[in-house]
Here is the input.
Amino acid sequence: MRTVKKYILPVVIVLEGLGALYAYKEYNRKPADLTGIAPQEITDVPSMVNLYDSNETKANEKFLGKTVEIKGLVSEVINIEDTLLTVMLGSKEEMHRVSCLLDKEQLVNLKKCKVGQQATIKGICTGFLLDVEMNRCVILNK
Amino acid sequence: MFSAVREFFNRREQESAENIFNYTFMKLVSIITFMLLAHHFSFSQAKLFTKTGNITFHSSAALEKIEATNNKVLSVWIPADGKIEFSVLMKGFEFEKALMQEHFNDDYVESDKYPKTTFKGTVEGSKNISLATDGNYSVKVNGSLTMHGVTRQISTPATIKVKNGVASATASFTFLLADYNIKIPSIVADNVSKQILVVVNIPAYQPMN
Here is the structure.
């Protein structure tokens, strides 16, 4: 009994404390910034849009929920009250484009995106409506 | 005699000028009237849409309040016949906590299997809404909500606001998770409410080209 109290109990208490701390941190974990996360798919606007347009099911198998790095022509930059930041990739003449909803923290990087220039953006693909939708997006220096 | 001739030509010139003026004025009135009528009719027949509607849902349970927002809601509305549709990507809902977002997508709504939630219905009283006149209109929206592979009829009051020719809309309603086969594990039963409040906000509908 003395052995338990002297040696084992403190270890158990420490382990339980660590477990509780881990659970607390995990429970309160915020969604990760994608800047430092490797993409699961690398593509360009025509490839992604054409696949979604021709076979949405197959496109979802490839892209849905994945971290996607995409390169394309910036056709629109939309800033609503410095909180809703969207970069549209792909020509305005096309029926479908890629809509990239940026993290608010990307406001400082938004000036890197100029209409008419190429941009590389990384984000999570959420699916396809009128455009291919991506959110949590970050602008890359490429 | 010369003065009579001069007077004759002056009068002719004056009458001619008056005729030209009257003709031009009437033509201008006709053009403006046509444009106003065309503008009114084009509004009422137009298809309106938005890609930036937002939907927030709220869960208020004993142990936790949870909310998530989707800012890329697609909606199309035809005021002339009242038809309205919404489409929202489930993976587009953003939560404050990553773990809740993962559970929501992987376990509750199974967004890999059911990526979209859609609504198709009609706006009662849509024909009475004049997009050319500022005002607030209380309407009722009826239709089919399809979520997690289940389709159910719902009906909800809504408000359509018209200001400077632009229509916006808001609505809120509740639904039971069980009605859409969305199962919450018993271990987190006190963290997620059985009834969810949904708040829909369309800041501005614009004409669809």
In short: The first strand of chain B starts at residue 48 and ends at 60. Chain B touches chain A at residues 51-52, 71-72, 74, 87, 89, 91-92, 94-99, 101, 105, 111-112, 115-116 (CB under 8 Å). Residues 112 and 142 of chain B are 28 Å apart (CA to CA).
